[in-house]
Design a protein that fits this description.
The protein has helices at about 5-100, 105-120, 140-145, 175-185, and strands spanning about 125-130, 150, 160-165, 170-175. It is α+β, with helices and mostly antiparallel strands and about 200 residues long. The longest helix is centred in the first third of the chain and has 98 residues, at about 5-100. The termini are far apart.
């Protein structure tokens, strides 16, 4: 082999070895970069998942807050409407009571309630009261029931009240007492329910 062929052979072997070594180093570097890229992708995927969860939780809290506020507004509105309807209903009931007081049945009602109180008192002394609005009915009721009828100092919309001092008992058959009791205990049943 000539020197030139030897040099060419040496050059070819050196270049091939350099290419092989460069390829090995390049493959190792590529593999390291791919591992770093996979680790980076996993890290970013985790960060994205955590960020998404945090944003989702925040959105859920915001929605719940808005929903709670809306439910509270609905409950307030519902309660206000119920109170309006309750006022309207009891306004009508009050008018019906006032209309009833103008009928002959009212006089019979008063007489019956006085007689019931008289029976309850038995032999004990009792005081019988009419509302000031019914003062004109006192003498007729006193005559029909045989008891002394007094006029109360306060208006109780109609009906009677009787006191039995010996037993410390008040019999309240007044319209105001029944009206206020019904108004206080009245609830709207049925319809929509909520928690």
């Amino acid at each position: 082999m000539t020197t030139e062929e030897k040099l060419q052979h040496f050059y070819d072997v050196s270049v091939n070895e350099a290419k092989t070594e460069a390829q090995v180093q390049l493959d190792a570097y590529r593999q390291e970069l791919e591992q770093q890229f996979d680790a980076y992708k996993k890290k970013k995927d985790n960060e994205t998942a955590l960020l998404l969860k945090a944003e989702s939780d925040q959105a859920s809290r915001t929605i719940n807050k808005v929903l709670s506020a809306s439910q509270l507004d609905i409950k307030r509105s519902w309660s206000k409407k119920q109170n309006e309807l309750k006022d309207q209903l009891f306004g009508e009931v009050k008018q019906l009571l006032l209309d009833f007081k103008e009928t002959p049945e009212y006089d019979r009602y008063l007489e019956a309630k006085i007689n019931e109180a008289k029976e309850f008192a038995e032999n004990d002394e009792a005081e019988y009261y009419l509302s000031p609005q019914d003062a004109a009915k006192a003498s007729a009721l006193s005559a029909s029931t045989g008891v002394k009828i007094q006029i109360s100092d306060h208006d109780f919309m109609g009906g009677i009240q009787a006191r039995i001092p010996q037993k410390n008992i008040l019999i309240d058959n007044s319209f105001l007492g029944a009206f206020e009791n019904e108004r206080q205990n009245f609830t709207f049943d049925g319809g929509l329910t909520y928690e």
